[in-house]
Design goal:
211 residues; alpha+beta; Jelly Rolls; 3 helices; 13 strands; globular
Length: 211
Protein backbone atom coordinates (compact mmCIF):
# COMPACT_ATOMS: atom_id res chain seq x y z
CA UNK A 1 0.00 0.00 0.00
CA UNK A 2 2.83 2.41 0.81
CA UNK A 3 4.41 1.72 -2.56
CA UNK A 4 1.13 2.48 -4.29
CA UNK A 5 0.82 5.84 -2.59
CA UNK A 6 4.41 6.67 -3.49
CA UNK A 7 3.68 6.01 -7.16
CA UNK A 8 0.53 8.11 -6.99
CA UNK A 9 2.36 11.06 -5.54
CA UNK A 10 5.05 10.83 -8.21
CA UNK A 11 2.49 10.58 -11.00
CA UNK A 12 0.77 13.80 -9.94
CA UNK A 13 3.91 15.71 -9.07
CA UNK A 14 2.82 15.88 -5.41
CA UNK A 15 5.09 14.39 -2.77
CA UNK A 16 3.80 12.14 -0.02
CA UNK A 17 4.86 14.76 2.54
CA UNK A 18 2.83 17.38 0.66
CA UNK A 19 -0.27 15.17 0.74
CA UNK A 20 0.09 14.72 4.48
CA UNK A 21 0.74 18.40 5.09
CA UNK A 22 -2.25 19.52 3.02
CA UNK A 23 -4.49 17.21 5.02
CA UNK A 24 -3.31 18.69 8.30
CA UNK A 25 -1.12 15.74 9.24
CA UNK A 26 1.95 16.56 11.33
CA UNK A 27 5.20 16.39 9.30
CA UNK A 28 8.51 16.65 11.16
CA UNK A 29 11.95 16.99 9.59
CA UNK A 30 15.10 15.44 11.01
CA UNK A 31 17.07 17.34 13.63
CA UNK A 32 19.51 20.00 12.42
CA UNK A 33 22.75 20.43 14.39
CA UNK A 34 24.83 23.61 14.12
CA UNK A 35 28.36 22.93 15.41
CA UNK A 36 29.85 26.33 14.43
CA UNK A 37 33.07 24.63 13.31
CA UNK A 38 32.96 26.15 9.83
CA UNK A 39 33.46 29.65 11.26
CA UNK A 40 36.65 31.39 12.38
CA UNK A 41 37.78 32.47 15.82
CA UNK A 42 36.21 35.80 16.80
CA UNK A 43 33.70 35.77 13.94
CA UNK A 44 30.31 37.27 14.75
CA UNK A 45 27.53 34.71 14.29
CA UNK A 46 24.68 36.33 12.40
CA UNK A 47 22.96 34.97 9.28
CA UNK A 48 25.51 32.33 8.25
CA UNK A 49 23.02 29.51 8.88
CA UNK A 50 19.87 30.91 7.29
CA UNK A 51 19.86 28.07 4.78
CA UNK A 52 19.74 25.57 7.65
CA UNK A 53 16.83 27.32 9.36
CA UNK A 54 18.28 29.63 12.03
CA UNK A 55 19.35 33.28 12.39
CA UNK A 56 21.49 34.29 15.38
CA UNK A 57 21.04 38.00 14.61
CA UNK A 58 24.62 38.94 15.47
CA UNK A 59 24.08 38.26 19.20
CA UNK A 60 27.11 36.02 19.69
CA UNK A 61 30.59 35.23 18.39
CA UNK A 62 33.05 32.35 18.06
CA UNK A 63 35.59 31.07 20.58
CA UNK A 64 38.07 28.44 19.34
CA UNK A 65 39.92 25.70 21.20
CA UNK A 66 43.65 26.43 21.18
CA UNK A 67 42.91 30.11 20.59
CA UNK A 68 40.64 32.46 22.53
CA UNK A 69 38.62 29.72 24.31
CA UNK A 70 39.42 29.23 28.00
CA UNK A 71 40.36 25.55 28.63
CA UNK A 72 37.75 24.88 31.38
CA UNK A 73 35.03 25.42 28.72
CA UNK A 74 35.68 22.51 26.32
CA UNK A 75 33.65 22.32 23.08
CA UNK A 76 31.30 19.40 22.54
CA UNK A 77 32.50 19.22 18.93
CA UNK A 78 35.99 20.52 18.23
CA UNK A 79 37.08 23.26 17.81
CA UNK A 80 34.43 26.03 18.09
CA UNK A 81 31.73 27.22 20.46
CA UNK A 82 29.68 30.39 20.71
CA UNK A 83 29.45 32.43 23.91
CA UNK A 84 27.49 35.22 25.58
CA UNK A 85 29.68 37.95 24.14
CA UNK A 86 29.46 41.03 26.40
CA UNK A 87 29.81 43.22 23.30
CA UNK A 88 26.26 42.16 22.35
CA UNK A 89 24.62 42.42 25.76
CA UNK A 90 25.31 38.93 27.07
CA UNK A 91 22.10 37.29 25.79
CA UNK A 92 22.17 34.93 22.79
CA UNK A 93 19.08 34.88 20.58
CA UNK A 94 18.26 32.47 17.75
CA UNK A 95 15.27 32.91 15.43
CA UNK A 96 13.62 30.13 13.44
CA UNK A 97 13.73 30.59 9.67
CA UNK A 98 11.40 28.90 7.18
CA UNK A 99 9.13 27.28 9.74
CA UNK A 100 8.56 27.04 13.48
CA UNK A 101 10.57 24.67 15.65
CA UNK A 102 9.12 21.84 17.70
CA UNK A 103 12.26 21.20 19.74
CA UNK A 104 15.40 23.22 20.49
CA UNK A 105 18.50 22.24 22.46
CA UNK A 106 22.20 22.91 22.97
CA UNK A 107 25.19 21.87 25.05
CA UNK A 108 25.97 24.47 27.72
CA UNK A 109 29.05 25.12 29.87
CA UNK A 110 28.92 28.05 32.27
CA UNK A 111 30.18 29.65 35.47
CA UNK A 112 26.58 30.15 36.68
CA UNK A 113 23.15 28.60 35.97
CA UNK A 114 22.19 29.17 32.33
CA UNK A 115 18.64 29.19 30.96
CA UNK A 116 17.25 28.32 27.54
CA UNK A 117 13.83 29.88 26.91
CA UNK A 118 11.53 29.27 23.94
CA UNK A 119 8.90 31.75 22.69
CA UNK A 120 6.18 31.84 20.07
CA UNK A 121 5.91 34.55 17.42
CA UNK A 122 4.03 36.82 19.86
CA UNK A 123 6.70 36.56 22.54
CA UNK A 124 4.70 34.17 24.74
CA UNK A 125 6.97 31.90 26.79
CA UNK A 126 6.49 28.27 25.69
CA UNK A 127 9.06 26.55 27.89
CA UNK A 128 12.33 26.93 29.77
CA UNK A 129 15.23 24.72 30.84
CA UNK A 130 18.09 25.67 33.18
CA UNK A 131 21.41 24.11 34.12
CA UNK A 132 21.77 23.27 37.85
CA UNK A 133 24.77 25.52 38.35
CA UNK A 134 28.30 26.28 37.26
CA UNK A 135 29.59 23.36 35.16
CA UNK A 136 32.99 24.35 33.80
CA UNK A 137 35.85 21.88 34.27
CA UNK A 138 36.70 21.70 37.98
CA UNK A 139 33.38 23.15 39.16
CA UNK A 140 31.98 19.82 40.38
CA UNK A 141 29.56 19.40 37.46
CA UNK A 142 30.43 17.99 34.05
CA UNK A 143 30.85 20.48 31.17
CA UNK A 144 28.44 20.45 28.24
CA UNK A 145 25.08 19.88 29.90
CA UNK A 146 22.38 19.46 27.25
CA UNK A 147 19.39 21.77 27.66
CA UNK A 148 16.25 21.18 25.59
CA UNK A 149 12.77 22.67 25.25
CA UNK A 150 10.02 20.93 23.26
CA UNK A 151 6.85 22.83 22.28
CA UNK A 152 4.77 23.60 19.23
CA UNK A 153 5.37 26.75 17.18
CA UNK A 154 8.69 27.89 18.65
CA UNK A 155 9.62 31.11 16.84
CA UNK A 156 12.80 31.99 18.73
CA UNK A 157 14.88 31.12 21.78
CA UNK A 158 17.29 32.97 24.02
CA UNK A 159 20.08 31.84 26.32
CA UNK A 160 21.32 33.82 29.31
CA UNK A 161 23.00 33.56 32.70
CA UNK A 162 20.42 33.60 35.46
CA UNK A 163 22.54 35.36 38.10
CA UNK A 164 24.09 38.07 35.97
CA UNK A 165 23.66 38.85 32.30
CA UNK A 166 26.80 40.87 31.68
CA UNK A 167 28.27 38.27 29.35
CA UNK A 168 31.39 36.10 29.15
CA UNK A 169 29.82 33.52 31.48
CA UNK A 170 28.84 30.53 29.30
CA UNK A 171 29.47 28.73 26.03
CA UNK A 172 27.09 26.96 23.65
CA UNK A 173 27.84 24.12 21.24
CA UNK A 174 25.91 21.85 18.87
CA UNK A 175 22.79 24.01 18.72
CA UNK A 176 20.04 21.57 17.69
CA UNK A 177 16.48 22.01 16.47
CA UNK A 178 13.61 20.21 14.78
CA UNK A 179 11.45 22.12 12.30
CA UNK A 180 7.73 21.45 12.57
CA UNK A 181 5.28 21.80 9.67
CA UNK A 182 1.58 21.56 10.45
CA UNK A 183 -0.96 22.79 7.91
CA UNK A 184 -4.52 23.95 8.52
CA UNK A 185 -6.64 20.77 8.87
CA UNK A 186 -8.74 19.99 5.78
CA UNK A 187 -9.94 16.37 6.23
CA UNK A 188 -11.60 16.03 2.80
CA UNK A 189 -8.57 17.23 0.86
CA UNK A 190 -6.33 14.18 1.16
CA UNK A 191 -8.82 11.71 -0.38
CA UNK A 192 -9.42 14.21 -3.18
CA UNK A 193 -5.73 14.48 -3.93
CA UNK A 194 -5.31 10.72 -3.89
CA UNK A 195 -8.24 10.51 -6.32
CA UNK A 196 -6.42 12.93 -8.60
CA UNK A 197 -3.37 10.71 -8.34
CA UNK A 198 -5.35 7.58 -9.23
CA UNK A 199 -6.84 9.29 -12.28
CA UNK A 200 -3.44 10.52 -13.39
CA UNK A 201 -1.87 7.09 -12.92
CA UNK A 202 -4.69 5.35 -14.86
CA UNK A 203 -4.30 7.84 -17.70
CA UNK A 204 -0.57 7.22 -17.80
CA UNK A 205 -1.09 3.45 -17.87
CA UNK A 206 -3.72 3.83 -20.61
CA UNK A 207 -1.32 5.94 -22.66
CA UNK A 208 1.40 3.31 -22.21
CA UNK A 209 -0.96 0.53 -23.42
CA UNK A 210 -1.98 2.61 -26.44
CA UNK A 211 1.66 3.05 -27.37
Amino acid sequence: MKGTYLKLSIATGITTATLLSLSGVHVQAASVVIDFDSLTSGEVVDNQFLGLGVDFQGTTSILSLGGNLNAPYPPKSIPNVIFDDPSFGGIIRANSVGGFWSKVGAFITGNQPVSLRAFDVNGVLLGEATTPGANFTGSGLEPNIFLEVAAQNIAYVDLFGTIFEGGNSFTVDDFTFDTDTTAIPTPALLPGLIGMGVAALRKKQSDNVAE
